[in-house]
C-alpha cells in the first residue's frame, strides 16, 4: 500500500459496544478485525496479508454529530443500502444523486454517521 504525505492513513471510529460494532461492519461490509483486548479492534486492510490496518474501532462514549465524515465506495449502492439495513444500521439520508454518482448516509449502532457512494 502506498502512503502519501498528508494523506489519510487510518480512520478510528468510537463505538459504544465493540462486539456489536464488529458484527455490524462485518455483516454490512465484510470487514474483518484484529482484536487488541476488550476496548479496541483494528480494521484489517482489504488487501489482506501483511497490508497495514486501515483503521480501528475504539470503545468509548457515544459519538456526537458533526465530527469527521467517512465516505465508503460501493460498486452496487442499492445492495449496500440493503446490507446496512439488514446489519442493523439506519439509513438517514438518500440514496440521492450528486454530480458523478449517488450516495446515502447511515448511522451505525453506536450512532456514527458514515456515507457510501457509487459512480453513475
Can you describe what's shown?
- It is a single chain.
- It is built from two helices and eight strands.
- It has 120 residues and is α/β, with parallel strands linked by helices.
- The chain is globular, with a radius of gyration of 14 Å.
- The strands form two sheets. Strands 1-4-3-2 form a four-stranded mixed sheet, with helices on one face. Strands 5-8-7-6 form a four-stranded mixed sheet, with helices on one face.
The CATH topology label is 2,3-Dihydroxybiphenyl 1,2-Dioxygenase, domain 1
What is the β-strand count? Answer: 8
Shape: globular
Report low-confidence residues grouped into runs of 5 or more.
none
- Assembly type: single chain
How many domains, in number, for the residues? 1
Largest sheet: 4 strands, mixed
Q: In DSSP terms, counting alpha (H) and pi (I) runs of 4 or more, how many helices?
A: 2
Gap from first CA to last CA: 27 Å
CATH C-level category? Alpha Beta
**Secondary structural class:** alpha/beta
Percent strand equals 35-45%
Q: Can you give the helix content as a percent range?
A: 10-25%
What value does the Rg take, in angstroms? 14 Å
Give the second-level CATH assignment, the architecture.
Roll
The overall average pLDDT, rounded, is: 93
Q: Which sequence of strands runs across the widest sheet?
A: 1-4-3-2
CATH superfamily: 2,3-Dihydroxybiphenyl 1,2-Dioxygenase, domain 1
Element pattern in H and E: EHEEEEHEEE
Overview features:
4-stranded mixed beta sheet; 120 residues; 2 helices; 8 strands; 37% strand; 2,3-Dihydroxybiphenyl 1,2-Dioxygenase, domain 1; alpha/beta; single chain
Amino acid at each position: 500500500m502506498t502512503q502519501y504525505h498528508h494523506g489519510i492513513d487510518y480512520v478510528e471510529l468510537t463505538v459504544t459496544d465493540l462486539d456489536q460494532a464488529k458484527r455490524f461492519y462485518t455483516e454490512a461490509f465484510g470487514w474483518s478485525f484484529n482484536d487488541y483486548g476488550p476496548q479496541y479492534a483494528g480494521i484489517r486492510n482489504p488487501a489482506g496479508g501483511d497490508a497495514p490496518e486501515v483503521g480501528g474501532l475504539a470503545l468509548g462514549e457515544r459519538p456526537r454529530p458533526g465530527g469527521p465524515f467517512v465516505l465508503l465506495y460501493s460498486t452496487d449502492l442499492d445492495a449496500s443500502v440493503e446490507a446496512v439495513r439488514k446489519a442493523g444500521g439506519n439509513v438517514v439520508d438518500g440514496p440521492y444523486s450528486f454530480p458523478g454518482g449517488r450516495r446515502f448516509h447511515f448511522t451505525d449502532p453506536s450512532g456514527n454517521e458514515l456515507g457510501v457512494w457509487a459512480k453513475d
